[in-house]
Amino acid sequence: MKRDHGDTSKGSSSSSTSSSTTSAAGSACSNLWDTKDPSPSAGMDELLAVLGYKVRSSDMADVALKLELLEMAMYNNSGATDISFATLPHGTSLDDDAGLSYLSHLSSDAVHYNPSDLSSWLQSMLSELNPTPDFSAASSSQQQPPPPPPAQPPLRQPFPDYSACDLSVIPGAAATPPNKRLKASMNTAAASPPTASSSSALTAVSPPRPVVLVDSQETGVRLVHTLMACAEAVQQENLKLADALVKHVSLLAASQPGAMRKVATYFAEALARRIYRIYPREFSLNSSSYNILQMHFYESCPYLKFAHFTANQAILEAFATVPRVHVIDFGLKEGMQWPALMQALALRPGGPPAFRLTGIGPPQPDNTDTLQQVGWKLAQLADTIGVEFDFRGFVANSLADLEPSMLNISSSEVETVAVNSVFELHKLLAMPGAIEKVLGSIRAMRPKIFTMVEQEANHNSPVFLDRFNEALHYYSSLFDSLAGCGAGASEDTVMSEVYLGRQICNIVACEGTERVERHESLIHWRSRMESAGFNPVHLGSNAFKQASMLLALFAGEDGYRVEENNGSLMLGWHTRPLIATSAWQLGSSNGGP
Amino acid sequence: MASWVIQVKYSKDGVQMVHPRPSPPSKRPTATFSLNDHVDILTEILTRLDGRSLGVAACVCRAWRALSRSDAVWERLCFRHVSPPPPSGTRHVVLALGGYRKLYMMCVRPLLLGGGGRGRGEGLAMWSREGLQLSLSLFCVDYYERVGTASSPAFLCNCKPVNV
């Protein structure tokens, strides 16, 4: 049943209520009223004409529909009610999440055309409400065959077909093929098959943006655009719209092959977590399950191996002739980096030095002593290959809690110190002042070399949308490279994807001190290190050669690229660098023993 | 007793052994040369073979199997084209980590073949000192992963972790 539009400003509302009943009366009226129009339904013109509106009878249903839409648009700003427009010709029900808060501009700058010509006036009103949409996300939904017509009212259906309005891009969203009555002003973009949702038809967010008309059938592109639209909605706190878009993303993602689907799924999940503010404790990046996931990541692709081998090469060169060495590892995890270094030290010309390792790790929730276990394994290995070994473990919630004096570092005449950090420093950016404190601690340790491996990406912008876009591109490359490794759906690959998914979740869904995956690119780290008083050390050609040979072991080797960047080495997938290794030594500015 | 005939093929990729097969029972006088009696010559030949042929040789008989599996043979294979000879302690390390045959199969061969097993033959063109170091490192990492599941000892190490 049509709703009572009693309180609208449109005087014809009463007639729209009665339009269904008056259509029969219209023909009766036409007999009563001697109209100029010979068509039998022209009589309606007269009834409304009395009220001052000129409407063709043939347009009555059209006008009625538009009135309904306009009313819904104007009266449902916050989308509290779920309006079911069962009376709409094609029976779609409107999603109340229109989030139609853009109406405010109507009161100020809408241009109203001649209201007596009701049909075109309504058209102008509705097109005001749908200014040129900014995203082609609407056209992104073209490929999907629409879900069956909404015979089930509770199902949240996408928006009705606005193709009757003068929209220049959105093809319309009818869950059914577009009603022929509304085909009057079908635009070119609507030539594609009807879609599952034009929820993005109403992403008419202010300020309006230039139209991007995407005619391509690439759902991948549309998927990306929908993701970005959702992120933008989240940024603008338009959570209802974002929620609708997230569901749409899941729908689109199902049609994609391979890496794109997985990336989209993880990002959609992260966005959903952000919208609903759910972030499970098990996703903490300090847990032992995360370590296990990282082990799979280690096996399935070369990034971690590259990190370890290049850092080890720098440390090895710094340790070339010294008798006692001490390595401080900021994130011991499973200690996978150190067997290779110990083997290289064992075969060092002149014999192996005495090797001392200090490993730092987070506290484990079940209080198991993982650091000690790793230390024991390394000690066994050292015994096997004949290297004198000593291990100490430190449990710390954050690197900023460390004091150099705790580490019991001997003076530099006795032992040579190296500090190593693989994917640990960016976590300190979550707390103000932490990174400076840690860099100061490193200086106090007086290392001969400090090796650092970080993700080559900018995921720490204060603007959520920028972070999101950067992360989307970065992790798309990472997932591509995982797929390109040729490992198929092996357990390692799957677990690596889960590992990366955890990082995605942290970047997208968290804020404040919980958001620890604050990646920054090498340029930023360089300036930070240099202002803290460190000088860069060039990683030599040996490291480069070793890295290149390492890549030959992986099936997707054609895609991986090792690049040298001012003395640092970067490993990337095709043209996109993904991780960067750099080495630093103490500058002489704050020098002095 | 049938004698075995070895056919040895010389090519630019090295020496390969092709289909050893027994010769027909000798009609000639019994002045035959039985290779199995001359282990040193056999070893010399085996050390010049490539990895696949060594595997084939190990299937011939028990004597050959024992010889083909000896570390000396595989050591020669691993270091065949490395121009500066490897450091002196290498043998001790490699033997401790599992032996040269394992080193070859797990680390050297994949590096030579490249790309996870693509490539035909076992060309040694790319072998170099860095390759050797890399393969040794990978071998060590692999040992660490294999052994890693061993249980902790009954006593803890004397340095307890400090909770910061």
Provide key terms for this protein.
heterodimer, A: 593 residues, alpha/beta, nine-stranded mixed beta sheet, B: 164 residues, alpha+beta, two-stranded antiparallel sheet, 7 helices, 3 strands, 43% helix
Backbone CA Rg of chain A: 32 Å
User: What's the number of extended β-strand segments of chain A?
Assistant: 9
The coarse overall form of chain B would be: elongated
- H-E order of chain A: HHHHHHHHHHHHEHEHEEHEHHHEHEEE
> How many E-type strands of chain B?
3
Treating each run of at least 4 consecutive H or I residues as one helix, how many helices of chain A?
Answer: 19
Strand fraction of chain B: 5-15%
Which chains share the greatest interface? Answer: A-B, 53 and 41 residues
- Rg value of chain B: 21 Å
Low-confidence stretches of chain A: 1-41, 77-105, 132-217
The SS-based structural class of chain B is alpha+beta
Strand order of the largest sheet of chain B: 1-2
Q: Give the amount of beta strand of chain A, in percent.
A: 5-15%
